[in-house]
Structure formats: structure tokens, C-alpha cells
């Protein structure tokens, strides 16, 4: 009954709006035998983190849009790898959905995991895509923007340190390596493993620079505790209109992005995959979800990819990582 | 003071707030007491409802749950050797032996009073000094200082629960080695999660997550205790513990006053540092107490001072953990992260400006934590008189319940079944360790400190350009390392002297 009402509602909205772009498109019929019990959504990271928040927001949005219900289960550990076996032994019936991020793609390219997220899993959508930035303390006197920072680093090589939340081979470290190589920067990298500690290390003065995505440090940006000085994106997003991009400062590479999406196992019946793909699309268009993504600065670049788009993004990213790893001599 | 009174008045000014206050108090205590579900579970369930609540009620509710939850786990630790939450693990070391001696009431009484005391004192410090303390802590304690602090913790941990110093050190070293399983904190290099056993290649994604200390604690304490008691029953040597409801006397508290002061101090400092938290606070409080106590030999055999030390320290950490959250927007743990979420849901950002923008709310938080800690005394007094009677249930009925709680607790941690197997393995290993005079607590402490310590060490090395002398060039880390070295040396010397003395006496 709830399904029917939502469907009818969606149809009504679409006809009123006239221009139903991607959000309120009609859902296909619910495949027989599907959705009669709650689906499990595996989150490979801990409660309260970025992946957890996204999964819960998406689960709620899909519930509102389609009537499917979800049970969100966190299986953290091993940088997102510990959850994979449980996902792989679940029956391929579409009742188990896993959230995962670009880290899984990097892990596959590096040889840490065997599963190719674009081939061994079926992406039903990508719902968040964001870029990275470099931050400094606003009261920093040695340098105040990217230009003066580079001048300072050139005059004092290996004196400054940058805090990065990530391990060797991660999107974060690869991007820093790319910019350092492109501009000949000499800074010391410090790898952190807990967000609060990382941010505290910039605020407390233990590191001089921070590498992060804007959505994760939004509260510090709004509170005036951090200041962005470089954006890793081809064009300046409107919110950060006065911050230069890496292209503008002379680094010529396609910057890797952070993305988060949802997967089912290979072997799930095509009608179920199609339904889930449509459900995810509808969830992305849900007003509550849109608001959530805006609060996380996930509206600055087009953050949605359908199944085909996701496969393409993942495959391209695998190639980029393989190239970079080869250059850096990381992985197998 | 005016601000505090104002906060208190708006807290108890309307019936809804009063109701929510007591709901949080009972809820936190109940969820804290059951392993598997804890105050985080309660917090996660309640979080969506806070959107429609008044911001002051929402923040107050979570502050109260936090205080009550940290205390709640002490009860099961004392009665059944199952720590309700990791920060209550060291409470088992002396709390449970007290139960076996028929002093359960006394142990719970001490836990109640000291939780309340530690929490209240730290709430008072929090009220008076949040701004200053927060910026000091975050500036003064970088990775090298945290590493030195952990080294200091290791130096005192060898004395916990082992029959000789050497066995204590071996236990701690075993814990440190278990901590290396998984992937390394900087390079992500797999360690023991792939390779070859007997010529067979294996790769385990599960093991890449490492061994978590919670299933180890549940195995070492709860499962191995069930084994030990079952063996005693089979041999016919088990005597049922008496269910006493006797409260500790004032004189007993006065006798341990310095332990209380030390634990407040230790707990408060561990609480302020992001990522250290209440669990380490409790362990450090306990090992400090053992180190300086006159009744050192009684530790681990049911010494009141042991219960006092860890319960004071873990609750002292609660108030302290709010300091970096409120003043800098840095949550130290999952529950404080939820509190931060509540502020954000209602359009406020914890950080330097929060005292200016939402000062009234901050003071409601302070007042709520203060009163919640005071209330723990009264509730705890009632609990002492009631829950102790569970001990009258025959053990053969109690044991399956204990095991079920332990299994749920191990699985609920990460929803990974490997944790349940680890718990059972640890249960058997824990039984052997106890029989042979090694220390289960030492292994757990080695595991916790090993993970934190390696990560801090790796970061320090990167920060200081791989110059080890850097540790001695920073005053705080230098002092901590020197004190640690002195403690290690003096304990070795006194162990050797003791041997000589014994030998002389025998001769």
C-alpha cells in the first residue's frame, strides 16, 4: 500500500513539475519476491563517520521514496576491507547492499583486495563525489595563501609538515605526491588515522598544513579555525570562488576524487538490480537527502552517477591508480 | 556561578526536562550495564528523535547518558566479571574477587561513590576551565607527547595482576605483539593477514582489521571465569559468594583518599586527549594505584582501592572529554561525536565561538553532567541494596546467561563473527594465563597501548624527521620518558632485591 502511494505520489509530482529530470522518475514495478523483508545495508566503516552518515541518509531516503526498508549494519576495520567477506558470502538476491568508497578501488588497483568493484560487484549508484583541498590556520603569519606558502616552502625545504588522514597509496597521499612532484614542493607528510586527531594537529600547531575534503571540515571552516588555500578541481566551485585550483597554480593532472556509492553482488537478478538502481536514483532526488548532501558540500560537483556512469568512473579510477602506483613503485 | 544556577534552573524548570533527565540517567545506566548494548546503542537509537526536541533537552539527555553509561558497566564487572563497557574492564580485577569474598555490596558501593566523585570533580574543573585547558591540551600534546604518555603507561602496566614482574612483562609483550596483527597504521602493510601456513597460501580480510581488545576482554574475564567456576563446581570446590549489601564506611574512603586524588588527575588528563579516553584512563588509574599503594600485594585479590582507582578515573574522563568537544569541536569518542551531531542538527557549531553564541546551552550541559554525577550516588545506593541479590541465582543458571551476554557483546562490536571466535580463544587462553601466574589484564593493556603507541610513534617519526632524540627535546615527552625509565629500572631492582632477600631468608 505504501509502495503504491509513493509511486502515485512520485507520478503526480512528476506531472506537476513537468520537467522530471532524474529525481522523480517513475520506479519500475517491484520484482516478484523482492522487498518483502528489510534489506541489509553493510557499511564498512564505523558509526558516525562519513560513510555511515551517507548510508543512513540514503536508507531513509529510499524508504521514503519506495517503501523498501533497510537495516544498516556497520562492519568497520582494515580500512574498509573487513566487511567484504560478509558481503561476498551473502546470497546474490539483492537483499544485501554494501556501501563503499573509492578506497576499495585503490585497494583493488594496489592488489590488497581481489574484488574489482566495477566487475565483481554491481554498482547501483554513486551518491557522493567530492574534491580535496589544502587548509592552513587563519592566524598563520608565515604565509597566507597558496602563493606565499609555495614561496615559503621553497625557501625552507622540508621544514613544514602536512597532516593527511590516509595510508600509503590512498587517494590523499597520491594527490599530495602528484602536486609535490608537479611543483617540486618539499614538505614532510604525517599520516594520521583518526579524524579528530588530524584536525586537532592543525589547530594545535603540530602540523602546518592539512589535506582534507571540505565536507569533513565544514564546521572548522564555518567556525574560522581553518582556511582553504588550494582546491583540487579543474574549475573553482562557486563556494570557494577565491581559492585557486591546482590547474591554475601550474599542476597539470586530473585530480582524483572521493566518491561513495552502493553495490550489490554480481549475480543478482537483472530486474532487482534495475529496481535498486531506480530506487537509489529516487533516493538521491529525495528532498531530505538533497539537504543532507548540501550540508556536506556534496552539491558542488555533480554527485550522482547511475550504474553505467559508476562503472565508468570506477574503471577510469582503477587505471589512474595503476598508473600512479607504477610511477611510485607501490603495490603489485 | 550565576551561569551554573541558571543552567540548573532551566534544567529542572519544567517537567519535560526533569523527565528527560531521569530517562537519560536510568537508560544510560541500564544500557551501560548490559554488555553488547551500551550507551552508544542507546545514543544511536535516540539520535533521530533529538531533531524534534528542544536543543537544550537534547544536549542534556546525551550528557546524562554519557555520565550514567560509564558507571553502569561497573555493576556487571563486579558481580559477574563481565565489564559492561571497555572502560570498566579493570574494575573486574578487584571488583570480582571482592564479590567472591562476599563483599559485592562494598565493591558496588565504592564504584558508585567514586564514579560520582570522579565525575563531579571533573565536571567542576570542566565548568571553570574549559577554554584554557582545551587549548593547552591540544597545543601541548602532539604525537610525541602521546607516545611518551603511552610509554609511561606501559612502564606501570607490567605490575598488574601477574605473580612476578617477569611474567607481568611477558604478558604485556604478548599484548604488544597481538597489537601488530592487521595492517600497519602508516603504510597499510598487511601483517599476519596474508601469507602461508604449512605451505598453504591464505589471505584474510577479517584479520586485516586486526584483533580488537573488546572480544579479548570479554574472553579473558567473562568466558575464562565461567570455565574456572565450572571446573570448581565439577571438582566440588566452589562456594557460592555471599550476597552482602554492606556499603563501604567513611573510614575506608578516607584511607584511600590519595588514590582518589591521583585517579581524578589521571582520568582527567587521559580524557582530554582525543583518542585516549576513558578506557585507558581506567587502566592507568588502576596501575597508578597499585604502584603507590601500601596494600600492593592485595591487588587483584579483592582490594577496595583497586575498584576505587579505576571507577574514579573513568568517570573523571567523561567531563574532560567534553572540553575539546565544546572548545575546539574535536570529539574524542563516539558518544561525544553524537553530542556534536546534536549541536549541528540544531544549527550550532561546537568550537571557540560556542560560549559566545550558545553559552546558555553549554551551561545546561555542564549543569546536567554535574547533577547526573550526583544522582548516581542515590541510584547506586538503591542498586547496591537490590542487584546484589542476583548472586543468589545458582551458577548453572547464571553461566549460560553470562556466555550469551559475552557473545552478543563480542559480535555487536563490529558485526564480524571473527570477534566471537577470538573471544572464545581468549577465554581458554585466559584460563591458562591465570593458572600459570601470567596477567590477562597485562595482555589487554599491551594490546590497547600497542595500537595507540605504534600509531603515535609512527607519526612522531614523520614529524621529527626520524630523529629519535626529538623525544628528548620536547619537555613534556622528555619528562614522561625519564619517569617511565626510572619506574622500569626501580621495579627491576626491587624485584631482584626481593629475590636476594628471599634467598637470604631461606639460607
Describe the structure.
The complex is a heterodimer of chains A (332) and B (507). By secondary structure, chain A is of the alpha/beta class. Chain A folds into 2 domains: 2-129 and 258-328, Bordetella uptake gene, domain 1 (D-Maltodextrin-Binding Protein, domain 2, 3-Layer(aba) Sandwich), CATH 3.40.190.150; 133-240, Periplasmic binding protein-like II (D-Maltodextrin-Binding Protein, domain 2, 3-Layer(aba) Sandwich). Chain A is 40% helix and 17% strand. Chain A is built from 11 helices and 10 strands. In chain A, the strands form 2 sheets. Chain A has a 5-stranded mixed β-sheet. In chain A, helix 2 links the parallel strand 1 (39-43) and strand 2 (70-74). The longest helix of chain A is centred in the last third of the chain and has 22 residues, at 307-328. Chain A is elongated, with a radius of gyration of 21 Å. The N and C termini of chain A lie far apart (53 Å). In chain A, 52% of the residues are buried. Residues 1-24 of chain A have low confidence and may be disordered. Chain B has 507 residues and is mainly alpha-helical. Chain B has one domain. Chain B has helices spanning 2-12, 15-33, 39-46, 55-80, 89-100, 104-140, 143-157, 165-178, 205-208, 213-235, 250-255, 257-272, 277-292, 304-328, 334-345, 354-357, 359-386, 395-414, 418-436, 440-463, 470-473, 475-506; strands spanning 182-183, 190-191, 194-197, 200-203. The longest helix of chain B has 37 residues, at 104-140. Chain B is globular, with a radius of gyration of 23 Å. Chain B starts with a helix and ends with a helix. The mean pLDDT of chain B is 84. Chain B: Residues 18-445 form the DUF112 domain. Chain B: The chain crosses the membrane at residues 20-47, 59-80, 107-134, 146-166, 205-228, 264-286, 321-340, 361-382, 438-458, 478-496. Chain B: Keywords: Membrane, Transmembrane, Transmembrane helix. Chain B: It comes from Tritonibacter multivorans. Chain B: Pfam families: TctA.
Amino acid at each position: 500500500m505504501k509502495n503504491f502511494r509513493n509511486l502515485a505520489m512520485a507520478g503526480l509530482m512528476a506531472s506537476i513539475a513537468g520537467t522530471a529530470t532524474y529525481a522523480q522518475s517513475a520506479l519500475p514495478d517491484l520484482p516478484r519476491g523482492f522487498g518483502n523483508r528489510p534489506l541489509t545495508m553493510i557499511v564498512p566503516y564505523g558509526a558516525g563517520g562519513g560513510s555511515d552518515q551517507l548510508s543512513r541518509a540514503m536508507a531513509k531516503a529510499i524508504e521514503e521514496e519506495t517503501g523498501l526498508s533497510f537495516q544498516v549494519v556497520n562492519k568497520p576495520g582494515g580500512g574498509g576491507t573487513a566487511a567484504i567477506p560478509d558481503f561476498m558470502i551473502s546470497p546474490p538476491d539483492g537483499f544485501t547492499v554494501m556501501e563503499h568508497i573509492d578506497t576499495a578501488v585503490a585497494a583493488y588497483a594496489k592488489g590488497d583486495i581481489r574484488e574489482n568493484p566495477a566487475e565483481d560487484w554491481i554498482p547501483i549508484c554513486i551518491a557522493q563525489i567530492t574534491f580535496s583541498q589544502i587548509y592552513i590556520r587563519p592566524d598563520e603569519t608565515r604565509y597566507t595563501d597558496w602563493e606565499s606558502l609555495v614561496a615559503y616552502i621553497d625557501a625552507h625545504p622540508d621544514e613544514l609538515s602536512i597532516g593527511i588522514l590516509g595510508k600509503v597509496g590512498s587517494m590523499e597521499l597520491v594527490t599530495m605526491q602528484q602536486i609535490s612532484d608537479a611543483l617540486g614542493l618539499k614538505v614532510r607528510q604525517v599520516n594520521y588515522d583518526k579524524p579528530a586527531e588530524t584536525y586537532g594537529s592543525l589547530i594545535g600547531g603540530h602540523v602546518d598544513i592539512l589535506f582534507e575534503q571540505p565536507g569533513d571540515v565544514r564546521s572548522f571552516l564555518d567556525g574560522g579555525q581553518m582556511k582553504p588555500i588550494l582546491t583540487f578541481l579543474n574549475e573553482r566551485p562557486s563556494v570557494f570562488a577565491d581559492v585557486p585550483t591546482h590547474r591554475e597554480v601550474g599542476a597539470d593532472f586530473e585530480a582524483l576524487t572521493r566518491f561513495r556509492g552502493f553495490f550489490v553482488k554480481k549475480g543478482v537478478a537483472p530486474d532487482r538490480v534495475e529496481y535498486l538502481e531506480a530506487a537509489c536514483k529516487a533516493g538521491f532526488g529525495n528532498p531530505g537527502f538533497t539537504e543532507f548532501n548540501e550540508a556536506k558540500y556534496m552539491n558542488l560537483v555533480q554527485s550522482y552517477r547511475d550504474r553505467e556512469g559508476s562503472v565508468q568512473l570506477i574503471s577510469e579510477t582503477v587505471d589512474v591508480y595503476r598508473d600512479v602506483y607504477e610511477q611510485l613503485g607501490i603495490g603489485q | 556561578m550565576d551561569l551554573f544556577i541558571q543552567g540548573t534552573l532551566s534544567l529542572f524548570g519544567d517537567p519535560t526536562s526533569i523527565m528527560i533527565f531521569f530517562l537519560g540517567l536510568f537508560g544510560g545506566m541500564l544500557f551501560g550495564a548490559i554488555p553488547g548494548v551500551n550507551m552508544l546503542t542507546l545514543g544511536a537509537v535516540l539520535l533521530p528523535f533529538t531533531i524534534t526536541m528542544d536543543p537544550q533537552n537534547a544536549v542534556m539527555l546525551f550528557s546524562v547518558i554519557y555520565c550514567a553509561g560509564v558507571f553502569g558497566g561497573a555493576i556487571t564487572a563486579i558481580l559477574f566479571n563481565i565489564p559492561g563497557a571497555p572502560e570498566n574492564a579493570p574494575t573486574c580485577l578487584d571488583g570480582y574477587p571482592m564479590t567472591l569474598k562476599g563483599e559485592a555490596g562494598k565493591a558496588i558501593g565504592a564504584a558508585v561513590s567514586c564514579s560520582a566523585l570522579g565525575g563531579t570533580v571533573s565536571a567542576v574543573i570542566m565548568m571553570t576551565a574549559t577554554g584554557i585547558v582545551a587549548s593547552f591540551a591540544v597545543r601541548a600534546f602532539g604525537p610525541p607527547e602521546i607516545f611518551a604518555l603511552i610509554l609511561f603507561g606501559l612502564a606501570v602496566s607490567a605490575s598488574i595482576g601477574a605473580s612476578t614482574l617477569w611474567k607481568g612483562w611477558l604478558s604485556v609483550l604478548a599484548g604488544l605483539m597481538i597489537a601488530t596483527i592487521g595492517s600497519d597504521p602508516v603504510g597499510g602493510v598487511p601483517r599476519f593477514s596474508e601469507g602461508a601456513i604449512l605451505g598453504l597460501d591464505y589471505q584474510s580480510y577479517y584479520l586485516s582489521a586486526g584483533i580488537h581488545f573488546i572480544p579479548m576482554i570479554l574472553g579473558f574475564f567473562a568466558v575464562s571465569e565461567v570455565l574456572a567456576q565450572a571446573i570448581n563446581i565439577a571438582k566440588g570446590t566452589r562456594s557460592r559468594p555471599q550476597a552482602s549489601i554492606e556499603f563501604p564506611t567513611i573510614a575506608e574512603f578516607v584511607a584511600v583518599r590519595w588514590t582518589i586524588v591521583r585517579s581524578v588527575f589521571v582520568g582527567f588528563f587521559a580524557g582530554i586527549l582525543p583518542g585516549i579516553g576513558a578506557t585507558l584512563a581506567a587502566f592507568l588509574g588502576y596501575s597508578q594505584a597499585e604502584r603507590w599503594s601500601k596494600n600492593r600485594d592485595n591487588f587483584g585479590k579483592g582490594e577496595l582501592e583497586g575498584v576505587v582507582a579505576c571507577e574514579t578515573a573513568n568517570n573523571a574522563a567523561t567531563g574532560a572529554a567534553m572540553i575539546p568537544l565544546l572548545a575546539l569541536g574535536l570529539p574524542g569518542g563516539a558518544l561525544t561525536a553524537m553530542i556534536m551531531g546534536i549541536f549541528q542538527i540544531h544549527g550550532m557549531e561546537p568550537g571557540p565561538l560556542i560560549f559566545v553564541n550558545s553559552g546558555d546551552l553549554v551551561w545546561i550541559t555542564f549543569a546536567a553532567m554535574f547533577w547526573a554525577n550526583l544522582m548516581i550516588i542515590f541510584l547506586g545506593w538503591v542498586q547496591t541494596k537490590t542487584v546484589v541479590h542476583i548472586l543468589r541465582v545458582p551458577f548453572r543458571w547464571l553461566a549460560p546467561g553470562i556466555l550469551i551476554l559475552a557473545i552478543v557483546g563480542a559480535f555487536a562490536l563490529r558485526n564480524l563473527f571473527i570477534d566471537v571466535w577470538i573471544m572464545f580463544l581468549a577465554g581458554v587462553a585466559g584460563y591458562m594465563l591465570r593458572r600459570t601466574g601470567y596477567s590477562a589484564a597485562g595482555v589487554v593493556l599491551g594490546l590497547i597501548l600497542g595500537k595507540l603507541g605504534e600509531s603515535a610513534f609512527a607519526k612522531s617519526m614523520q614529524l621529527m624527521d626520524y630523529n629519535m632524540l626529538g623525544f628528548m627535546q620536547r619537555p613534556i615527552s622528555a619528562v614522561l620518558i625519564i619517569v617511565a625509565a626510572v619506574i622500569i629500572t626501580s621495579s627491576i631492582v626491587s624485584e631482584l632485591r626481593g629475590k636476594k632477600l628471599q634467598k637470604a631468608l631461606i639460607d
